[in-house]
Amino acid sequence: MDYKGLTQRIFKPAPYVLAVVLWCILTLKEQFFLYKVENLSVFLFDKLFIADSLKIPGGFLGLAGSFLTQFLHLPWLGALIWVLLLLTAYQLTIRVFRIPESYHPLALIPIVLLIIGNMSLGYGVFIMREQDHFFAPLLGYMVSLLPITSTRRLNTLWSRIIFLTIWTAAGYILFGTFAFTGTLAAVLSILIQPSMKRKERPTLFSCGIVLIILVPLAIYSAYTSYRLADSWVMGLPSVSDDAWTRPMRAPFQIALLCQILFALTSRFLSEKPLEGIKSYVFRSAMYIIAIVAVWGFWFKDDNFHTELAMSEAVDRFDWDRTIEIFRQAEKSHAKSDAKAYASRSKKIESAHSIDQINEIVEHYKDRFFEPTRSMVLYRDLALLKTNRALGEAFTMKDGSRMQESRTIIPMVWQSGKQFYLQYGLVNMCYRWCLEDVIEHNWSYSTLKYMAMHSVIMQEPELADKYINKLEKTLFYRKWARQQDELKSDREKMSATEPYSSILPYMCFENQMSNDMMKTEAYLINHFLDKEPDLATPEYDRAALLFAMHIQDIPRFWERLFYYVNSNDINELPRSVQEAALLYSTLKKDGRELPLDEKVVKSYDEFNRYVQNHPIRSMKESEYPYCQKFGKTFFYFYFFMRDLKTY
Fold first, then answer.
1. In 128-200, which ranges are continuous DSSP H helix?
2. Which of 196, 291, 316, 610 is 20 to 30 A from residue 38's alpha carbon, by CA?
3. How confident is the model over 468-501, as pLDDT tens digits?
């Protein structure tokens, strides 16, 4: 068999085919993740912003990364730029290290690591200190290849030492620690060359090590905005100091280590290329490993992606789309839930004790769809904004699935600002924006929320501060100009979305208190602690919904009274009727309620089903009860217990 021809036909176009596939996946499946990365970053066409970015070593690299990150606002365009840069880095690796054709797939290793570094983040995206991480490591990797070729072209020891000294100092200022990798790889690539004189090798190697140690120490005195201990990680993605977050840097660090390994092995690879079937098998194996590695580390949690999609819809104030995203998530899991239930039922039939049953139920619990609290809050917010919450909120899935994360990211970091703003707690929103700026620097989202806070509070001078910044962006100029027109015109502002739907919730005495980083608990206390003197229908609808969620019977009756008095209703929403019927029956208080016959009939059917299907375990019975009564408040009250927020 002509393995050489076969290898050429299959593997020559392979990197480009994989690049197209990667771009399609990013554009079609990860567009909301890309949008969130962009939303948490910022780039201003402003001299002060540029100067401020250069105040630390590697600042230019971060600036370049932020510049490219802004194009993720259009996910297809940002993904295209990133994929093209990955292809460029792949080709540069091959050429710089002179990798023979039979070993070309080795150049995929750092590329795979760079992909994993970004696409394995998941909830970690909310704790990155600088949101240039999507492009900056890739740019740094490419830049660090430059001194390798340049050093190789120089002929004398002293010319190489002078060049490496200039490169290391200038490169560290511009690109941070990526310059050191280039320095070390350049030194090693020269040392393994037969033409390098043996007596000059210790001098060149010692020079490289000394430069890597002394340059950061010498340059540190010129800066005041970072710690000396961080001198050798400047330019790498920055996260908090907690041990669990350090692995987030690992893919980028290993990708740089690959350059050292390539420098050490390039001579061996060039002297012993693979041929025939060995080349075919090796290249096939490497491509398979690369694909499996990327897919294996890719963050694929459905709830996370649903949260991002709902967050983006809320940012656009598209309430119908927000609800639809939740419904689609629910619908997409219907078949898998049915399969999981069938499989679980078979195993339970063969169980011999209640302990075995509980063990089986526990084993299968993650196989069933359950929304996170963020998903539920996004859904309820959208339903309230469209005045459908009390009729539809309890017809959809509820739950408190915890995040698929090494540690729990507080909801307040993830979506708290959105909820506080939309529920009229604009000062709380502003407070967390300030926290965000201190911890993670400016971002498009914080600038937008702070601008909206200033517009709502009629503080035109403060609004100008944020609007002027947004006018210096590429994709938010139009939005900023719209806010500029509203900042001093309350009548026009109050008639414009989203302000028109936020203002009705601002009927309370404006004050701030500590939310203890528990967004949902804070919202519940805010709406249920006391009734504002000037409560609006919107406020009372939200208060009644929260009272129903916490299953507090006295507060339900209290909030129902306020709701009925402030809202013009002909008939109570069905879920409210179900709650009223259930609570009055449980407490046997003999209340006479205007109930629909269908509600009474549904409750009688629920009671008969309970009598005929005894419950051994709430978790075991949850699925069949959900199939029959999942759209009723009866099911919610008995089965949605001990929901945990974060």
1. 136-143, 146-153, 157-175, 178-191
2. 291
3. 999 999 999 999 999 999 998 899 999 999 999 9
The count of structural domains within the chain is 1
Residue 174 lies in a domain: yes
CA torsion sign for 580, 581, 583, 585 is positive
Domain assignment present for 175: yes
User: Which stretch of DSSP H or E encloses residue 289?
Assistant: helix 276-297
Instruction: Find the domain containing 213 and state its range.
Output: 3-297
The set of residues, in sequence order, having a beta carbon less than 8 Å from that of 321 and lying 6+ positions away, is 313
Task: Encode pLDDT of 599-627 as tens digits.
Answer: 999 999 999 999 888 777 788 889 999 99
In a domain, 372, yes or no: no
Mean pLDDT of the chain: 91
What residues contact residue 43 under an 8 Å CB cut-off, 6+ apart?
49, 63, 66, 67, 69, 70, 473, 474
Residue that is written with structure tokens 């490993």 in the block: 289
Distances (CA, A) of 478 to 420, 435, 474: 24, 27, 9
Choose among 92, 84, 82: nearest CA to 142: 92
CA angle 562, 505, 482 (to 5 degrees): 155
pTM equals 0.94
DSSP 67-99: HHHGGGGSHHHHHHHHHHHHHHHHHHHHHHTT-
Spatial contact of 429 and 456, defined as CB atoms under 8 Å apart = no
Q: How far is CA 499 from CA 230, 310, 451, 457, in A?
A: 44, 19, 12, 11
- Taken in order 239, 243, 244, 248, the sign of the CA dihedral is positive
Is a pLDDT exceeding 90 seen at residue 324?
Answer: yes
DSSP, residue by residue, 224-288: -SS-GGGGGGTTS----S-GGGGGGTHHHHHHHHHHHHHHHHHHHHHHS---HHHHHHHHHHHHH
Contact (CB, 8 A) for 398 and 365:
no
Q: How big, in percent rounded to 5, are the helix, strand and coil portions of the chain?
A: 70, 0, 30
Angle, vertex CA 274, rays to CA 269 and CA 278, nearest 5:
140
pLDDT tens profile 552-600: 999 999 999 999 999 988 889 999 999 999 999 988 776 777 889 999 9
Query: Rounded to an integer, what distance in angstroms lies between the CA atom of residue 618 and that of residue 358?
Result: 10
Q: Is residue 558 part of a domain?
A: no
